[in-house]
From TrEMBL, chain B:
<feature type="transmembrane region" description="Helical">
    <location>
        <begin position="101"/>
        <end position="129"/>
    </location>
</feature>
<keyword id="KW-0472">Membrane</keyword>
<keyword id="KW-1133">Transmembrane helix</keyword>
<keyword id="KW-0812">Transmembrane</keyword>
<dbReference type="InterPro" id="IPR011701">
    <property type="entry name" value="MFS"/>
</dbReference>
<feature type="transmembrane region" description="Helical">
    <location>
        <begin position="163"/>
        <end position="183"/>
    </location>
</feature>
<feature type="transmembrane region" description="Helical">
    <location>
        <begin position="382"/>
        <end position="399"/>
    </location>
</feature>
<feature type="transmembrane region" description="Helical">
    <location>
        <begin position="53"/>
        <end position="71"/>
    </location>
</feature>
<feature type="transmembrane region" description="Helical">
    <location>
        <begin position="337"/>
        <end position="361"/>
    </location>
</feature>
<dbReference type="InterPro" id="IPR036259">
    <property type="entry name" value="MFS_trans_sf"/>
</dbReference>
<feature type="transmembrane region" description="Helical">
    <location>
        <begin position="405"/>
        <end position="422"/>
    </location>
</feature>
<feature type="transmembrane region" description="Helical">
    <location>
        <begin position="251"/>
        <end position="271"/>
    </location>
</feature>
<dbReference type="Pfam" id="PF07690">
    <property type="entry name" value="MFS_1"/>
</dbReference>
<feature type="transmembrane region" description="Helical">
    <location>
        <begin position="189"/>
        <end position="209"/>
    </location>
</feature>
<protein>
    <submittedName>
        <fullName>MFS transporter</fullName>
    </submittedName>
</protein>
<feature type="transmembrane region" description="Helical">
    <location>
        <begin position="314"/>
        <end position="331"/>
    </location>
</feature>
<feature type="transmembrane region" description="Helical">
    <location>
        <begin position="22"/>
        <end position="41"/>
    </location>
</feature>
Length: 367, 436
């Protein structure tokens, strides 16, 4: 009986709201509403169309060479050691070779680039092996894959990725390869991102799809959490590595062992570690208390023997996994006008940052 | 009883959509279709943004979004609070439409803001405001759906609305990626188009949804609620809280809370699918589409079925589908078909519970307090699910995924048994219930 009253109310009130039966204005009222709708659709469609057109125009502009940008010419790029030291990186300079792996002499980083034709979002190389995390253009959206390259940049292995590429590393010998992707952040998982780090043995072909099953101990007790996140592997040798693990809002440097699938925490507040060629120090980004939430990191160096850490002379926010160009110098990317720019700074905290080259990301030094 | 059904054939309702998707059968009211259209359009808009957000943060802005989700709980809490506020405001003076416009408008205005902010905290803040808008509009919208549909077809009305809503959610990512195809890294274009689409949703709401809810004027003249001795309801905070004094609504809310406490969140379901059934990485992002597709296909049939056999029965039955999904995830079966079956069951769960609960609850709340009442049930359910996801995460940490899921299955079984015993919505079972 409750509903009876409701339905009556509905019917009674339907008149004025749904177009007043029996009144001549009803049809013209509907017509007017349709006209207003049509006008709004037109205006909004124009705005939307203009936005897409402008963005499309801008995207195409990146296919033309940017004024004052570096010269890039296609040529052969090899990951073999020998000859004068070289840098291989993702060249972000506008033009036909944008996002291709390119090489420059280490002594002339801002000089003319030789582009390989291989496109990567993230890249690293060592010991004649390259790891390239690239986008695969699907019919609707892009997906991502990891591609292992030999010294001639030929693909030797492809692995589909579950998320957006962020970090990549190769062990000094070239045998072990690791990468990290961001997963989630879609509507269904909410804004909750997680990372997934994989390690591939290129000799046996064995792939560890995620480090989540590793036994991680901290101060003797095992860390168990659904929110355990790993990222930023840096290899010591073909068995041992360092990486970041995060849980409960804290990050730790871990030393891991691929044979026993175990890791122990070494130090706190360490992200994206990078081991020095002599294996004695870790360069990393540290979340420094008191910094603004949108620029929380500074580039630090940790001495593994003493556990002492110190800041580098770079005072800007560094969100990158740095590389060592030698035992005394760090190289890292900062956001720039055309993609990102590469800088270097002494590892011992002295000196000042120096711009190496613009429009470049993910460098690897080849001896 | 069928007075308002006949509205569909009144020449006054000339909107062609009124004859809509069920030719030859009684149509769903024009208001419901208009609200469905608003939700469809708005979902296209919001899913456009969420689909490209990870890409935008990581590759567009070069940010590390890890830990971005830490504030999620806080935002969800806000959203739930604003749902209650929205429900209450909407009931005062029967202002369902203005409050809904405010909610939809607020979310629309957030889209151009995304063009202006480039840091994680500010982007998080904009998304929080966006969700506040969603919180504000949900209860008044569902109240309008329930008030615009005759009680005996409410299940179907909510089914049609949810199906349209889900259609929008499926189209949004498609639209966004087509724009990115046209304009590489054109995130600003995606946000601008998303704003235009959201604005269109508000326009449709303003133009095609009746501005006055029928009931408040009549609340005093007709017994709007199951014949309690209570005086006519005046929408006040006290009256809204007093709703919990009604045995039927209290029972319903308790059951929704009990079942919500055993409802594992979507992201955990997909993680479990991947870990326990070995769904390959590259399919991971597509898993939600499976749920949405089943939801879309079944929302209307299950809504109609709920009208016939009883909403409460279908609501509780939907949880049995979820329980079956848990069972398959726990089992040692390993068939290639299994992930599809789990996703179909997951979608069935949503189709049988999401709109159906609102249809059931509407029958237990007087029209004058409809928004507040629906908000109460929704908030109770959302809070329970939030608690469940925290507890489930902790159980996963302590005992592993299988034990955690086993615990959830036991809890769900108990909740279903308790709900069957309480049977709170006996009177609101079906439209016919009022006659008998």
């Amino acid at each position: 009986m409750a509903e009876v009253g409701e339905v009556r109310g509905e019917a009674a009130a339907a008149g004025p709201d749904t177009g007043a039966p029996g009144r001549g204005g009803a049809v013209s009222g509907n017509g007017r509403r349709l006209l207003v709708l049509l006008a709004c659709v037109l205006v909004l469609a124009c705005v939307a169309g203009a936005a897409v057109w402008r963005a499309s125009d801008r995207a195409h502009a990146k296919d033309r060479v940017q004024p004052g940008g570096p010269t890039v010419a296609s040529g052969a790029v090899s990951l073999t050691a020998g000859g004068p030291q070289r840098i291989v990186f993702r060249s972000m300079a506008w033009g036909p070779h944008r996002d291709e792996l390119a090489t420059v002499p280490a002594g002339d980083p801002d000089g003319p680039r030789t582009a390989s034709g291989v496109k990567c979002l993230r890249f690293y190389a060592a010991g004649g092996t390259g790891i390239c995390l690239q986008a695969v253009h699907g019919p609707v959206s892009d997906s991502y894959r990891a591609v292992v390259l030999d010294a001639g940049l030929h693909v030797t292995r492809k692995v589909d990725l579950a998320g957006i590429p962020t970090r990549a590393r190769v062990s000094p010998s070239g045998r072990m390869v690791a990468w990290t992707v961001f997963v989630g952040g879609d509507s269904y998982a909410g804004t909750d991102f997680s990372t997934r780090t994989s390690i591939l043995d290129t000799r046996t072909g064995a792939l560890e799809p995620t480090l989540e099953d590793y036994t991680v101990t901290r101060d003797g007790s095992r860390l168990r959490a659904a929110d355990l996140n790993f990222w930023g592997v840096t290899f010591a040798d073909d068995r041992h590595f360092y990486a970041t693990v995060a849980t409960g809002g804290h990050t730790y440097l871990i030393r891991g062992d691929t044979a026993t699938k175990a890791a122990v925490t070494v130090h706190g507040n360490v992200e994206c570690p990078s081991l020095s060629p002599d294996g004695t120090r870790i360069a990393y980004k540290k979340r420094v208390p008191g910094l603004p939430a949108d620029a929380p990191w500074r580039l630090y160096v940790l001495d593994l023997a003493t556990g002492r850490e110190h800041a580098t002379a770079e005072t800007r926010d560094v969100d990158d996994q740095a590389v060592w160009s030698d035992d005394h110098t760090l190289v890292y990317a900062l956001p720039g006008d055309y993609g990102s720019d590469l800088y270097s700074v002494p590892a011992d905290g002295t000196g000042a940052p120096r711009l190496l080259t613009r429009s470049a990301l993910a460098p690897a030094y080849l001896p | 009883m069928y007075v308002s059904e006949s509205r569909g054939s009144t020449p006054a309702v000339t909107a062609p959509s009124a004859r809509g998707p069920f030719p030859g059968r009684t149509a769903v009211g024009a208001t419901v279709l208009a609200l469905g259209a608003v939700s469809l359009i708005t979902d296209i808009s919001s899913e456009m943004v969420t689909a490209v957000l990870p890409l935008y943060l990581v590759t567009g802005l070069g940010l590390s979004p890890l830990g971005f989700g830490l504030l999620d709980g806080v935002y969800n809490g806000f959203s739930a609070l604003f749902r209650l506020v929205g429900g209450h405001l909407a009931d005062r003076g029967g202002r369902h439409k203005p409050v809904a416009v405010l909610g939809y408008g607020l979310s629309a205005l957030c889209k151009p803001l995304l063009l202006a902010v480039h840091t994680l905290p500010l982007i998080g803040a904009v998304l929080a405001v966006d969700r506040t808008g969603k919180g504000l509009r949900t209860a008044p919208r569902d109240a309008m759906i329930s008030l615009a549909s005759p009680p005996e077809t409410r299940g179907r009305a909510f089914g049609v609305h949810r199906a349209m809503d889900t259609t929008g959610a499926l189209l949004g990512p498609l639209a966004a990626f087509l724009i990115l195809r046209q304009a590489a890294e054109g995130y600003d274009a995606v946000f601008t188009v998303s704003f235009c689409v959201a604005a269109l949703g508000v326009v449709v709401l303003l133009l095609f949804v009746p501005s006055r809810s029928p009931e408040p004027g009549l609340a005093g003249t007709a017994p709007a609620a199951p014949a309690d001795a209570a005086p006519p309801e005046r929408p006040s905070l006290r009256a809204a809280l007093g709703l919990l004094g009604r045995r039927e609504l209290r029972g319903l809310t308790l059951c929704a809370v009990a079942l919500g406490l055993a409802t594992v969140s979507d992201s955990f379901v997909y993680l479990l699918l991947q870990r326990r059934l070995g769904v390959p990485d590259r399919w991971f992002a597509l898993l939600p589409l499976g749920t949405a597709a089943a939801f879309l296909l079944l929302a209307v049939p299950l809504g109609r079925w709920a009208d016939r056999v009883g909403r409460w029965r279908v609501f509780v039955g939907g949880h049995l589908a979820l329980l079956a999904a848990y069972g398959l995830l726990l089992s040692h079966l390993r068939a290639g078909l299994l992930p599809y079956v789990v996703l179909a069951l997951h979608g069935t769960f949503y189709a049988a519970t999401d709109g159906v609960l609102m249809a059931a609850a509407a029958g237990s709340v007087p029209a004058a307090l409809r928004s507040s009442g629906l908000a109460l049930v929704q908030t109770g359910q959302a809070a329970a699910r939030f608690v469940c996801s925290i507890a489930f995460g902790a159980a996963w940490t302590a005992f592993g995924d299988r034990s955690a899921l086993g615990g959830a299955a036991v809890a769900l079984t108990l909740s279903v048994l308790v709900s069957l015993r309480l049977r709170p919505a006996a009177a609101a079972e079906t439209g016919r219930g009022a006659d008998g």
